[in-house]
Design goal:
The protein has about 475 residues and is an alpha/beta fold. The protein folds into 3 domains: about 60 residues, Winged helix-like DNA-binding domain superfamily/Winged helix DNA-binding domain (Arc Repressor Mutant, subunit A), CATH 1.10.10; about 100 residues, Aspartate Aminotransferase, domain 1 (Alpha-Beta Complex), CATH 3.90.1150; about 230 residues, Type I PLP-dependent aspartate aminotransferase-like (Major domain) (Aspartate Aminotransferase, domain 2, 3-Layer(aba) Sandwich), CATH 3.40.640. The protein is about 35% helix and about 15% strand. The chain has 15 helices and 16 strands. Bound molecules: pyridoxal-5'-phosphate (PLP). Pyridoxal-5'-phosphate (PLP) binds next to α6.
């Protein structure tokens, strides 16, 4: 009889030790094919362990095909094909951990104010949902997103952005990046895309590679005359606060763009990304293009990334009714990408008026940060110029220095400050007269804004006037 060394004090159960020992003995042919194994009782006596332990180990070997059982006769070792076995070398690849460097002052445009999030309220809504009465939400929900949330979004869009739509036109997804490919699939394969240059870098990088046509932007937003010179039929645009320049599309350009889209027989569409329109500091809110459009040519999209939190991963688009049938045909078998519970927490939060209240609070907070930033930079005028400061959560500054943007960025990084060169957002190179940077102020504490700017200016050798 084969001797199996079983360690009674090991953390591995006895049945597992026995199973592994026998399996190895079979694989290495220490037990010949066809050999009858000792009966459970005999082996239990021999090893001084319980019959149940033997039974479980034999059961496992049986299940994996190492032995067979002949009723009332016993267990026999099976013929097994040996797999070519290559000793694995210890992997030499070191796994790179993605730890992004933390800066003392990070002007990343995607950062929000984390101090003012209403955790207590959010927890209350989450707590209310996670109980027996929400059993239904354990099942898969509607592909377009939960009706209750779409209803609240339609309401909000009407009140705040002048957008008239019904919940059937809204599709919820886990981010602008995830929703854009869906929109692209709805449009004809032969479509030609135009993008703002500079623009939101995620779009060309993720979806359109090099095929998109870059359209220049000036202080009035996208230059529609330039768009008209191309054969593009779809344009992606951020009219309320152009990303990254911060320009607001002028009223004249809005009309021109809508007219461009309405030309008959061209199958043109405007994808309007209204990502941060909630925050406006100068002048009246600018209505969305979608609300001005009479020809169903605008696909409106927005997100809760700026207004609530980027980690929520809730964004949405509003389809013109002309694209609804195509949407249903292509996407009705796809599941929504946002968990149902998260959608209902948000819907209830909105229904009870907390989203509107939160926005009001955040507007005040961001306005204070915005004013502190612009006032501090004012003391460096005319050396520094600021643009794009009418809305949103970032501005553009340009500096009168001979160095490249990358050199200046490096210098700032060495001082523990993160700044973002506009050249990182170019679809096609543009020669800026002066190095230009995006400065997001959402994630910097109000009290830190002034010292952060002073340190940055000192590091670049820019003095107050
Ligand atoms: C132009 C633009 N659109 C959309 C978004 C938001 O994207 P998401 O909804 O995927 O978070 C951002 C985020 O910063 C943005 O800059």
């Amino acid at each position: 009889m084969l001797i199996f060394e079983l360690e009674k004090n090991s953390s591995k159960p006895l049945y597992e030790q026995l199973y592994i020992g026998m399996k190895n003995a079979i694989i290495t042919k220490q037990i010949d094919v066809g050999t009858k194994l000792p009966s459970k009782r005999k082996l239990a006596d021999f090893l001084n362990i319980s019959q149940t332990t033997i039974e479980i180990a034999y059961g496992q070997l049986l299940a994996e095909g190492y032995i067979t059982s002949k009723p009332r006769v016993g267990f026999f070792v099976e013929e097994i094909d040996t797999l070519p076995y290559v000793e694995k070398e210890q992997s030499k690849v070191t796994i790179e951990t993605r730890i992004t460097k933390k800066y003392q002052y990070d002007f990343h445009p995607g950062k929000i104010d984390t101090e003012s999030f209403p955790f207590t309220l959010w927890r209350k809504y989450a707590k209310e949902l996670f109980d027996n009465t929400s059993k239904e939400y354990l099942q898969v929900g509607e592909p377009q997103g939960e009706y209750e949330l779409r209803f609240e979004i339609a309401n909000y869009l009407y009140q705040s952005r002048g957008i008239i739509c019904n919940p059937e036109q809204i599709v919820i997804g886990s981010g602008t990046e995830q929703l854009l490919p869906m929109i692209l699939r709805l449009l004809e394969d032969s479509s030609k895309f135009a993008l703002e240059n500079p623009g939101y870098s995620a779009i060309p990088r993720i979806h359109l590679q090099n095929n998109a046509i870059p359209i220049p932007v000036d202080e009035d937003g996208l230059i529609v005359d330039e768009l008209e010179k191309t054969d593009a039929n779809i344009v992606y645009i951020t009219p309320s606060h152009q990303f990254p320049t911060g320009a607001v599309l002028s009223a004249a350009r809005r009309t021109q763009l809508l007219k461009w889209a309405a030309v008959k027989g061209t199958n043109r569409y405007i994808i309007e990304d209204d990502y941060d329109s909630e925050f406006r500091y100068i002048g009246k809110p600018i209505p969305a293009l979608q609300g001005m459009d009479k020809n169903e040519k605008v696909i409106y999209m927005s997100t809760f990334t700026k207004s609530l939190m980027p980690s929520l991963r809730v964004a949405y688009f509003v389809l013109p009714s002309t694209l609804l049938t195509a949407y249903k045909q292509i996407f009705s078998d796809y599941s929504a990408t946002v968990p149902r519970f998260d959608q209902h927490i948000l819907a209830n939060f909105m229904k009870d008026g907390h989203f509107a209240k939160h926005l009001n609070r955040m507007r005040k907070i961001y306005r204070k940060k915005h004013d502190k930033l612009t006032n501090t930079f004012e003391t460096f005028y005319p050396e520094i110029t600021i643009t794009g400061d009418q809305a949103g959560m970032h501005v553009l500054i340009s500096v009168p220095l001979e160095k490249t943007e990358q050199e200046l960025k490096q210098q700032a990084n060495e001082l523990n400050i993160a700044v973002y060169p506009v050249s990182d957002y170019l679809l096609k190179p543009i020669k800026y007269e002066r190095p230009t940077f995006l400065l997001g102020f959402g994630g910097i504490d109000l009290v830190d804004i002034e010292p952060a700017i002073h340190q940055l200016m000192a590091c670049w050798g820019i003095r107050k006037k």
